[in-house]
Design goal:
CATH topology of the largest domain: Adenine-n6-DNA-methyltransferase TaqI, Chain A, domain 2
Structural class: alpha+beta
Strand content: 15-25%
CATH superfamily of the largest domain: DNA methylase specificity domains
Oligomer: single chain
Order of helices and strands: EHEHEEEEEHHEHEEEEEEEEHEH
Radius of gyration: 23 Å
Length: 363
């Protein structure tokens, strides 16, 4: 990809281009934001944009009517600047999700020019280092400026942005077609009708430990040997590697971690090495000799349950994790977890994934 010459581009103030305000969200009878279990539907058709940095911000689907029109950019004001997306289609808003509504050039913005702007805007925001402490709010967004291509009269070069994204789409579609021909694996929906719900603390599952609750900024990295797991969804939740702390024994590799809240609520991982944890990250210590595949299966079910029925910053896992939090697992004829089913299922997934990777390496 050739590098774009932006030397003649012009800086535009965000507050000149957009009006930024919270997206509309559904409330309950008490005027509080509707909980996830009342908002999301398993057969829902309309996307709900939540405080998330992946899947274009879509946290699930609902049968409630869309209350926001497509054609705007959204971002979360409670997390990092990674949660910035363009919403092409109509959607349902959510608490703490901000919308960017064109203030000028309203008849000029298209899907492609908005996507072009999105990349410039998100790159600028990411370069400023917003995080959970220094949150990316609409007040901060208003103060930003973004460089865009311009015509001789100083107005945005809409044709340049349109053509650039169109060309990018052609290249991407060509590559996707090649990938799809190699990765033609049929999707199969799993019937969980006869599955059973379990609590984390049930006899054959886990001991729940509340974690070391350490603050990363107060730790040292002179001779780092211990992984540090925070509220993140990348790299198994591992945010850095730190020094061993005298008097604080790390958790053993093979234990699992769950993020109790925040943008990555419910993120669950099997940890590959000894580790410490940050605030609001708990540790699951298996009560029996679970295989890696079984742990991976359970981690996926925990994540699915968390994202479906709980809500970041409103109804998080903290007060539920040791009491009423439960999740589905396949069971044998005696109603116990079907370890063999989970093992075989993950083996099949691993095999299919390896085959797909082998095909991709040939491109």
């Amino acid at each position: 990809m050739n590098k774009i010459n932006i030397s003649k581009w012009k800086e535009f103030q965000i507050d000149e281009l957009f009006d930024i305000h919270p997206t509309k969200h559904y409330n309950d009878d008490n005027g509080k934001a509707l909980s996830n279990n009342k908002l999301f539907d398993e057969d829902g058709k309309n996307p709900v944009i939540v405080n998330s940095s992946y899947n274009n911000g879509i946290g699930g689907y609902s049968n409630k009517d869309c209350n926001e029109q497509g054609g705007i950019i959204t971002f979360s004001d409670t997390t990092t600047s990674d949660a910035v997306f363009y919403q092409e289609n109509d959607f349902i808003g959510y608490s703490h999700v901000q919308g960017m509504y064109p203030k000028i050039y309203k008849d000029k913005w298209t899907d492609n020019s908005m996507r072009f702007f999105l990349v410039a805007f998100k790159s600028r925001a990411n370069s400023l280092g917003y995080n959970y402490v220094n949150k990316f709010t609409r007040e901060l967004a208003y103060k930003m400026s973004v460089a865009l291509p311009v015509l001789n009269d100083g107005t945005p070069d809409w044709n340049f942005m349109e053509d650039y994204i169109q060309n990018m789409n052609k290249v991407a579609n060509k590559k996707l077609s090649a990938y799809q021909s190699l990765l033609d694996i049929p999707f199969q929906k799993i019937d969980i009708t006869n599955w059973k719900k379990f609590h984390l603390y049930d006899n054959d599952l886990f001991k729940i430990d509340m974690g070391t609750k350490l603050d990363k900024v107060k730790m040292t990295e002179k001779n780092p040997k211990i992984n540090f797991v925070g509220r993140a969804n990348a790299n198994n939740g591992i945010t850095t590697c730190v020094d061993y702390i005298d008097g604080i024994k790390p958790y053993d590799a093979g234990c699992m971690t769950i993020s109790l809240g925040g943008e990555y609520l419910g993120s669950c991982f099997v940890q590959p090495k000894d580790f410490y944890t940050s605030q609001n990250v708990i540790v699951l210590i298996p009560k029996n000799d679970m295989s890696f595949n079984v742990k991976q299966f359970i981690a996926t079910m925990i994540f699915k349950e968390s994202r479906t029925h709980y809500k970041a910053f409103i109804d998080e896992l903290n007060k539920h994790i040791k009491t009423d939090f439960s999740f589905y697992l396949p069971v044998d004829c005696n109603g116990n977890p079907d370890w063999e089913y989970m093992e075989n299922f993950m083996n099949n997934i691993s095999s299919e994934t390896k085959q797909s990777l082998d095909r991709l390496s040939s491109i």
